[in-house]
Request: fold
Amino acid sequence: MPFSQATIQSVAPPQTLGSQVYLSWTSSSPSGTPFQVYVNQRLAWAGRRLSTWIPIPSGPVRIDIGAVAPGEEGLNFASSLPEAPSRRAQLTWQSGAYKGADLAGFYVHGSDAPGGPVDTSTVLADITAYPAGIATDGFGVGGFGSGGFGHAASNYTWTSGPLAAGTWTFAVAPYDSAGNVGASSTTTVTIAAPPRAPAAVPGTTARLQYSLESYGQTGFGSGGFGLPAAILQWNPSPP
Reply:
């Protein structure tokens, strides 16, 4: 069978020690089932245990844990790993001279935060219609298509930077050589990427702090009646 995550029931929070990270998981697979661990889509470990230490690179890291069939431990299934959620929005559109003989380019606007309206006062990108002054569409260039008979259309694309999870709204507005801006077209893009790690405590590399309540400040609980309780604190994840 190929690499499968269907039987992975839970993954414990990773524990790091220097450049190594300890991973452990539970699985409904029969005892003796081999597993593989991929780091940034590269095979990092294979074995029949439910835990392992592996080297971890710096920067953003993607880890995939799954089961394989006996004898497939050494096979590389990187090309068939589940597609990772993207933190970037990609817009594509068609346009050309058939929409305006003096088309010069496009302004891309977007919302400031997920769920917010488009901020037209900020230009996220200025896309030139015809780089190097070379026309790629117009009457007689193409057959019957998006631009009508004899009018070809050019394809345009723009990719955002990393975005927080949520639904973002974008608008693309054409403009001519005199700077006149036409009507914009809007679209929404849903970003389903997981949140980033909490921001570091200022002046340190720590991402988690705790404080203890004074003796007698807590009632009966996991710490015992009146015993100090640990209060965890962390900063919001960066966008």
